[in-house]
Amino acid sequence: MNLLLRLLLNAVAVFILANVLNGVAVDNYVTAIIVALVLAILNLLVKPILILLTLPVTILTLGLFLFVINGLIILLADKFIDGFAVSSIWTAILFSVLLAILQWILHSLLGTKKKS
């Protein structure tokens, strides 16, 4: 149940940011739920591989390259989902940063925490 609530909160965050940012578009709320689900799957499966492959660059940039990896994950989700569009890598990086902040705010307001 907690996982479903977290997924819905992430979809709300995606939908809000798509309406706020100029370079991001989401067709409807169902597409936002699909985006949240695909982002969760990509963060679970693809992101660790990308982090491992780009470890030297990440160390050299003191971790700032992780923003680029997050932007690439957003762009990859854009390629998989028809009703979701991101205009550029810079918009994707900004979207990922704002998404993390908005998710943190929403989860702290509603008190949903990850079980460790």
UniProtKB/TrEMBL annotation:
Transmembrane portions of the chain: 28-46, 53-77, 89-110
Source organism superkingdom: Bacteria
Record carries keyword Signal: no
Coiled-coil residues: none
UniProt keyword list: Membrane, Transmembrane, Transmembrane helix
InterPro entries linked to this entry: Phage_holin_4_2
Record's keyword annotation contains Transmembrane helix: yes
Protein name, UniProt field: Phage holin family protein
Organism of derivation: Mesoflavibacter profundi
